[in-house]
Design brief:
With 179 residues, the protein is an alpha/beta fold. The protein folds into two domains: 65 residues, Double Stranded RNA Binding Domain (2-Layer Sandwich), CATH 3.30.160; 90 residues, Arc Repressor Mutant, subunit A (Orthogonal Bundle), CATH 1.10.10. Helix content is 37%, strand content 17%. It contains seven helices and six strands. A four-stranded mixed beta sheet has the order 3-2-1-4. The longest helix has 12 residues. The chain is globular. It starts with a strand and ends in a 6-residue tail after the last helix.
Length: 179
């Protein structure tokens, strides 16, 4: 059984979904609580609303801090990693190891996976990330200083804002119209 909780942040209502093994998903902020609930339940229709357990309170606090424009490290949050393919799990493990304020490119992650030609597959895996923010896919950029995509609401502008909050050099160097 999986459960979910919605909580308010500085930019809207966010949701966490969890099971016995840890965090199963994150729903990024929506302006209205009902929009957040509908969006979360589209992805996790079997989830039942419940108060967030004590072990997820650091995740809630960290997400709230990020949405206020403060730095936060969510690397210790337990994930239900068995919900994703082995390849995606490896990509997410590498992405989680990127410290706040730093970035890697899709190609650099592909090289860590053993084949630089996997860069597009890395991008696809990050586009399917069920734990945005907690698995910091916003810290992965395209080659040549380009920002790359971001599937969350607000797209590349949201990615740029998160990178700026964390003090990433990529945010300062990005051509906002070309990235």
């Amino acid at each position: 059984m999986i459960r979910y909780a919605l909580f308010e942040t500085a930019i809207g209502w966010t949701g966490l979904v969890w099971g016995d093994g840890g965090l199963a998903g994150v729903h990024l902020p929506e302006r209205e609580i009902e929009a957040a609930r509908r969006g979360l339940l589209r992805r996790f229709p079997e989830a039942i609303e419940a108060p967030a357990p004590d072990d997820l309170q650091p995740a809630i606090a960290g997400i709230r801090a990020l949405m206020r424009g403060e730095k936060a490290d969510l690397g210790a949050v337990a994930l239900e990693i068995g919900r994703v393919s082995d390849f995606n799990a490896r990509v997410y493990e590498i992405a989680r190891a990127i410290p706040p304020g730093e970035t890697l490119t899709y190609g650099e992650i592909a090289v860590q996976l053993g084949d630089r030609l996997l860069a597009r597959d890395v991008g696809a895996a990050l586009g399917q990330n069920p734990w945005p923010i907690v698995v910091p896919c916003h810290r992965v950029t395209a080659a040549g200083g380009k920002l790359g995509g971001f599937s969350a609401r607000g797209g590349a502008q949201t990615k740029l804002k998160l990178l700026a909050i964390e003090g990433a050099a990529a945010a300062a160097q990005t051509d906002m119209f070309g990235g």
